[in-house]
Amino acid sequence: MEPSAVPKAAVPFDFRKPGQAPGSQMRAVEVLKQKFLHRIVSSLSAYLRSSVTAQLLGVDHLPYGDFLRSLPSPTCVVSIGMYPHESNAVLELNPSLVFPIIELLLGGSGKAGTATNREITEIEQNVLDGLFRIIMQALADAWKDVLPVTLTLDSVGKEARLIHAPYEAMVAVSIDVKLEEGGGRLNLAVPSEVLALEGEDGDAPSAPRKLEATEAEQGRTLELVRDAKCTLETHLEGPMLRVRELLELKEGDVLAFDHPIDESLGGFVNGKRKFSGQIVSTGKRKAFQID
To answer: What is the reported pTM?
Structure first.
């Protein structure tokens, strides 16, 4: 007679913690570890014209809130769209890495100086645009065989709190990037749900799940944002000027814009074009009449 099996003790489960990544996600993570490091090193070395090395520090499966708490503040955060999936990856570059790169891109030696504990300016964001796209291309190339996605640069800022819910499960990759002068961490967080769509046995990706809000949920959301303020603006698309020409401008000069008189202007809400119309006057004020 076989001895009775000893019952296993129950272990409390915390639903806020994702635990270990399931096997269906590990193939994409392994490809990231093997190919992304190589591609990012070769691409950055060529782009910066400087020696670049990188070392994988770790891969974690954790809630988005824990990922946020691991980031320095201020920092540089990039939200990356992952078409056709309705979700975003989050790329974070430490200030100790960002500012030496800016120095290199502006023709310097790569020494960031002492003022690295600050937010990046809008001009510095524009300087870094090419860097962000190189990192995105390296990621897309590394994943193209197991996770075919089209990556888009959605936003750049200092905070990442509104991109995902605090308890959303993420796979986070931390990489130490070394330059000739200094360096720092590059952190990438990808929703676990997106990696799980790759398939249980590494086969073709499953169709992305599209979650649609009910009418009641849409109504509640509308009530929450109804009193939020938006900026409305319109502008003429002007010609390109050389810096020399800009410096020679004086009071009374007339600038000709590359905009036909009979063509509508764009009306922008929070920087995104929503309307077409014309500039009109209402008493002593200029106004925008929607077509």
So the answer is: 0.61
